[in-house]
Write a structure and sequence with these properties.
With 119 residues, the protein is mainly beta. The chain is built from one helix and eleven strands. The strands form two sheets. Strands 2, 4, 5, 6, 9, 10 and 11 form a seven-stranded mixed beta sheet that branches. A hairpin with a 2-residue loop joins strand 9 and strand 10.
Length: 119
């Protein structure tokens, strides 16, 4: 069954670090772009970082220089290393990929993991 499962969220003080993990089914991981989104209360879901199958990355301006996305092909896992965390990084973080299904495409989401940064 195709699925994404996040882990690694928690409560951290400002300036601290967390690493999020997203374990993916092999069918979702091998050739697809993997993304991390986040959604804070009252806000729209926003793209945080993305990584292609060959390792090219892209980041939202708000996290550049602080967050690093990476992927482990051996374990079908994508990571988000978050350093120098700020209270405004508080949100539910979601793993995402768009995968081909038959002749079309389907958007897959994990269940989300809460990140709370205290000031």
């Amino acid at each position: 069954q195709a699925q994404l499962v996040e882990s690694g969220g928690g409560l951290v003080q400002a300036g601290g670090s967390l690493r999020l993990s997203c374990a993916a089914s092999r069918s979702l991981f091998s050739t697809n772009v993997m993304r991390w989104y986040r959604q804070a209360p009252g806000n729209q879901r926003e793209l945080v970082a993305a990584i292609t199958s060959d390792g090219s990355t892209d980041y939202a301006d708000s996290v550049k220089g602080r967050f690093t996305i990476s992927r482990d092909h051996a374990n079908n896992t994508v990571y988000l290393q978050m350093n120098s965390l700020k209270p405004e990084d508080t949100a539910v973080y979601y793993c995402n990929t768009l995968a081909q299904v038959g002749t079309g495409f389907a958007n897959y989401w994990g269940q989300g993991t809460q990140v709370t940064v205290s000031s």
